[in-house]
Structure formats: structure tokens, C-alpha cells
Design goal:
It contains 17 helices and 8 strands. The chain is an alpha/beta fold. The chain has one domain: Alpha-Beta Barrel (TIM Barrel). An 8-stranded parallel beta sheet has the order 1-2-3-4-5-6-7-8. Helix 5 packs antiparallel against helix 8. It is globular and about 55 Å long. The two termini are about 30 Å apart. The N terminus is likely disordered.
């Protein structure tokens, strides 16, 4: 059964027997309801692969504190907390990454040093806990020369699973010509590139009491996707295997605007069509972090097949159990198997073991 059919049945229909038994059992169901997610997670053999799981190396914490950046979940992270959260929700392996703003606020020398130390910390975590962790390596962008050196070190020496890029670095999105050498090298290596949003300088603290991550992060993912596509970066580098966070941010909701953009843009019209834009947007992968709910999933599933959705949690900002619960309510068992594990294994075959 497809996710849409199973979801529709769950949301809108049930049999007469279901109505009767549902009514009779309402009291007992209510009593055990709070425990169901925990029971299901406890029974699940660890199998999930979390592609959106943050870690906080001590060097990064120190740099963030000095710059008066970061937040309590980042500061309070520990390896034990990661493993506890994973175990509660049947997560076998988490591919770790440093969260926003990575090392983009540092000068070239310090960005290089902190990125290297973060990547080495992630590699030690992987070695100390076999099978439990992987690495999306941090790059010292916007400093391109040292970023190219770190790609080589991370992928060749540390055997990282891929590279983590922020959606923008000082208001330069990923399709900017400045980053073309980085994109060319990632393409040459057929790298998995996971992206994580931040906020553009224009749009920080716009509305009192609404933090940037609530609205701006989803918007910045859309900005960088649009920039990558319409700059020609993704078509010039077709072997980069992108994962975009948070179900693509606001992009799936705004997709028609992007599809129609060439028809109103004299600059884009010669090279782009509605169908060509659609082809680009439907070949990437998208994670479920902060998006395991019908609002985000319905838009995303109109855009891409289940085979391009990967499990992500945004730990320590959200729990793995939250995401398991939301995805289980929406998808069929077969679709969950693909999202929870199989799709990530296809991207990163070493995880098969």
C-alpha cells in the first residue's frame, strides 16, 4: 500500500467493526496511549539511520562561546545523550554533523583548525562506538583553498560518509561562483553533500520572540536550492548527491513559483523550462528532521518519491522518538523501511553492515 493510501485510510476512513471496537476500547486505548511510542521503540531492533544528528566537539563549543554564539542544546550535548536518544527510538547509526553556523564566523586559520579538530573528534567518536556513528565533515568555508584541503583529508584520511555544508556563508549561497571549485571537487568525488540552514544577514531577529530557526531556516534552504539550480551549479555538477534538511524547507510548498520562474525571467528563459526545473528539484534527497508531520510531508511527497526521503531528527534540538512517532502515523510499513534505513544505505553503502 502506498503512503498516500494508507495515510488517507488512517486519517479519513475506518470499517464499521473498527468504529464499534474503537468506541468500546476508547477507555483502555487512552490509558495505554502515552506508552505506545516507547513500547514500539523498545521492541524495534536498532535499524534506523539518522542523517541529521548534531554533535558538539569541545573545540567548537569553545569557539561558539567566545563569539557569543550557540544555544543551550548545543552546549549541553554529550555522547551519552546521543546514544540514549538513539537507543530509545531504534536508531542504529547517526551520521553526525556540526550545526549552524559551523565555522563560518572564524578567520581562515581558525576556521581550518576548528574544522579539522571537529572532524577528528567525529572520527574518534566513530572509532570508539563501532557501527553507531558516521561523519558528515565540516568544511572551513567561506575559505575555499583550505576547504579543498579539508575535503581531501575528510574523505581520504578519515573516510567520512560525506560533507556538511551550510546553506549560506556570509550571504553567499551555495551556487555562488566563489564556491565553484568546491562544487567541482565534490562532483569529481561523487560526494554525498548534506546541507544545513542558517539565517541570512538580512533577516535575523526580524520579529520579536520568533527565533531565526522557526521561519528563516526553512526559507534559507529554499534560497540555496534556488541558487544552486538557477546558477547552473547542480546541472554542471550532476554527481553531487545532495541531501536537503527539513524536507526541503519551504521549497516543496513554493515549488510552482520556482517552476514558473523561467517564464517571467528573460535571463532564465533561454535555458530553463517548467519541466527542466522540475527534473532538478526531483532528483535530490530530503530528510525528515523537524518535518515528521503531515504539513511538511504532504508537500514533499507530491514532489519526490519515497526513495528520496531519508530519516533525520535534528538531535539534540528534537528527539528521535518524536520523529519515529510522526513518520509512523503517516507512512506505510514498506515506506517506513525505505525512509528509516534503505534509502540512506543506497547513498552510503558502507552502512549496509
Amino acid at each position: 500500500m502506498s503512503h498516500s493510501h494508507s495515510h488517507a485510510r488512517a486519517q479519513f476512513g475506518c470499517s464499521r467493526r473498527g468504529l464499534m471496537t474503537g468506541t468500546l476500547a476508547a477507555g483502555s486505548a487512552a490509558a495505554i496511549a502515552p506508552f505506545l511510542p516507547r513500547m514500539a521503540a523498545a521492541q524495534a531492533k536498532p535499524h534506523r539511520i539518522d542523517v541529521h544528528h548534531h554533535l558538539s566537539p569541545p573545540t567548537h563549543i569553545e569557539a561558539l562561546r567566545t563569539a557569543k554564539l550557540g544555544s543551550p542544546p548545543t552546549y549541553n550535548w554529550s555522547v551519552a545523550k546521543s546514544i540514549e536518544d538513539m537507543d530509545k527510538a531504534g536508531v542504529a547509526t547517526s551520521i553526525t554533523s556540526v550545526t549552524t553556523p559551523a565555522v563560518s564566523f572564524l578567520d581562515s586559520d581558525n576556521a581550518r583548525r576548528v574544522a579539522r579538530e571537529c572532524n577528528e573528534y567525529a572520527a574518534k567518536l566513530m572509532a570508539d562506538h563501532p557501527g553507531r556513528f558516521g561523519i558528515f565533515a565540516t568544511l572551513p568555508l567561506p575559505h575555499v583553498d583550505v576547504a579543498l584541503q579539508e575535503i581531501a583529508f575528510a574523505l581520504d584520511t578519515l573516510k567520512a560518509d560525506g560533507i556538511c555544508l551550510m546553506t549560506n556563508y556570509g550571504d553567499k549561497w551555495l551556487g555562488t561562483p566563489d564556491f565553484a571549485p568546491v562544487m567541482a571537487e565534490l562532483n569529481r568525488r561523487k560526494a554525498v553533500v548534506y546541507t544545513h540552514p542558517g539565517a541570512a544577514n538580512c533577516c535575523r531577529n526580524l520579529v520579536p520572540d520568533i527565533p531565526d530557526q522557526i521561519i528563516e531556516f526553512g526559507t534559507d534552504t529554499t534560497r540555496t536550492i534556488a541558487n544552486l539550480v538557477f546558477s547552473g551549479t547542480t546541472t554542471a555538477n550532476p554527481d553531487i548527491r545532495f541531501i536537503f534538511s527539513h524536507a526541503g524547507g519551504t521549497m516543496p510548498f513554493l515549488v510552482e513559483r520556482l517552476q514558473l520562474l523561467p517564464s517571467i525571467s528573460p535571463k532564465l528563459k533561454p535555458n530553463w523550462t517548467f519541466d527542466k526545473v522540475t527534473t532538478e528539484l526531483t532528483r535530490y534527497h530530503y530528510d525528515t528532521a523537524q518535518a515528521a508531520h503531515p504539513g511538511a510531508l504532504t508537500s514533499l511527497m507530491k514532489l519526490v518519491p519515497v526513495s528520496q526521503v531519508v530519516f533525520g531528527t535534528d538531535f539534540p534540538f528534537r528527539t528521535s522518538a518524536d520523529h519515529v512517532k510522526g513518520l509512523t502515523a503517516y507512512f506505510s510499513a514498506a515506506d517506513l523501511k525505505a525512509i528509516d534505513r534503505d534509502n540512506a544505505v543506497k547513498l552510503m553503502p558502507r552502512l549496509q553492515a
